[in-house]
């Protein structure tokens, strides 16, 4: 019988966890309850007690109770819960996971959920689900459900929300994903609104060649998700057209994918095509949110919530040096494409970010710093969104993948 792990603080929200446990078991599924509470006694008997969780996290439950340090306790119980959940998965005792809570409960449970592979059902009912969920979801497929009211007892409103969550995870676990007619090799591609035409044309070609293309929006989280999937071994080739997240990491924009962006394919020897898509821009929120130090820069209000800032020649030089350093570590076939007529939809004649001098610095520095004994460079007198340019990248990727096979 399939099993759903329930992670919860049974000292403060035991009634609510018992409610969802009963619903799940009523659906013909088994449950494994992990108690991550610290201070009070459990509302009902769990399958894995809080003492076991604390011990897995590196301390005794008695010591945590005596110290009374909520922050430290949460850290220990988060670590312990994550390790226990991983062990349950490894021993075939986890087919899905559900939790509910406020800030502490959400942190503990989603820390564990983020350690599970993509595809394992993960449901989190949280008081924080209507805000910024990025710290809790990260790059994993966690379903966040807003609790609407605080999670304090089972009432006429919370009962419906908790039941929806319990039925949701039960349905996810019970239903079988339909098998596709044919499993096609996966290619990861990166896209931004200003590079969409190129990615769409390349994807169209790659799919006619028998590949399945997963497109990641280069919004920071998108880049991280792609890098994680590459590390996990899902991806056979990478079409990294849009490397703009490097700009935000360098300059301090809001869409950074972190310091390890553009490293997974190189490290794992995955065939990759890399280009300079949207390296002309740094992303900020509303115009008023742009730091004062950038007020005199070339700013473009994409919409009410997004302001773009043109990168300078000196920033482009640094970006090229960063890219070269990362790509020079490659363990697999890599080709760098340079679109000499512009790197984004708004980097073209009469467009707001048109700056051929800054682009030239980018291209020249890349050619200077890239180890061309390991990495092939293809320059095209084209704009990044030209259909011919997109096709050239797609065809080159197919050649790299087939040559390695």
Automatic annotation (TrEMBL):
It comes from the Bacteria. Pfam families: UPF0261 (PF06792), UPF0261_C (PF23189). InterPro entries: Tobamovirus_resist_UPF0261, UPF0261, UPF0261_C, UPF0261_N. Signal peptide: none annotated. Residues 2-176, 184-401 form the UPF0261 domain. Gene3D superfamilies: Uncharacterised protein family UPF0261, NC domain, Uncharacterised protein family UPF0261, NN domain. This is Uncharacterized conserved protein UCP033271. It comes from Halanaerobium praevalens (strain ATCC 33744 / DSM 2228 / GSL).
């Amino acid at each position: 019988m399939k099993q759903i792990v329930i992670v919860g603080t049974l000292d403060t929200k035991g009634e609510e966890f018992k409610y969802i446990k009963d619903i799940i078991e009523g659906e013909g599924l088994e449950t494994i309850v992990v108690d991550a509470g610290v201070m009070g006694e459990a509302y009902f008997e769990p399958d894995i007690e809080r003492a076991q969780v604390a011990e897995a996290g590196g301390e005794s439950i008695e010591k945590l109770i005596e110290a009374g340090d909520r922050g430290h306790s949460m850290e220990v119980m988060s670590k312990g819960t994550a390790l226990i959940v991983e062990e349950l998965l490894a021993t075939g005792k986890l087919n899905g996971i559900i939790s509910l809570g406020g800030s502490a409960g959400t942190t503990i449970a989603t820390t564990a959920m983020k350690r599970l592979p993509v595809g394992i059902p993960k449901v989190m009912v949280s008081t924080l689900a209507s805000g910024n969920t990025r710290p809790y979801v990260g790059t994993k497929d966690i379903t966040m459900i807003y609790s609407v009211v605080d999670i304090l007892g089972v009432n006429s409103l919370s009962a419906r929300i908790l039941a929806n969550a319990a039925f949701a995870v039960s349905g996810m676990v019970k239903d079988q994903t339909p098998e596709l007619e044919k499993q096609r090799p996966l290619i990861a591609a990166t896209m931004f609104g200003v590079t969409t035409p190129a990615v769409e044309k390349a994807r169209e070609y790659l799919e006619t060649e028998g590949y399945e293309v997963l497109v990641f929006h280069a919004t920071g989280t998108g880049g991280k998700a792609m890098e994680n999937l590459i590390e996990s071994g899902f991806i056979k080739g990478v079409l990294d057209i849009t490397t703009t997240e490097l700009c935000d990491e360098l300059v301090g924009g809001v869409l950074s994918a972190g310091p390890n962006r553009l490293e997974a394919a190189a490290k794992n020897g995955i065939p990759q095509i890399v280009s300079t898509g949207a390296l002309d821009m740094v992303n900020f929120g509303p115009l008023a949110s742009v730091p004062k130090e950038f007020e005199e820069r070339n700013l473009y209000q994409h919409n009410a919530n997004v302001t773009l800032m043109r990168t300078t020649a000196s920033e482009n030089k640094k970006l090229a040096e960063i890219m070269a350093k990362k790509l020079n570590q490659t363990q697999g076939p890599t080709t760098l494409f340079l679109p000499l007529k512009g790197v984004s939809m708004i980097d073209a004649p009469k467009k707001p970010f048109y700056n051929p001098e800054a682009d030239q610095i980018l291209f020249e520095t890349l050619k200077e710093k890239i180890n061309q004994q390991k990495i092939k460079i293809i320059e095209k007198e084209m704009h990044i969104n030209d259909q011919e340019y997109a096709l050239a990248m797609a065809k080159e990727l197919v050649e790299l993948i087939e040559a390695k096979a």
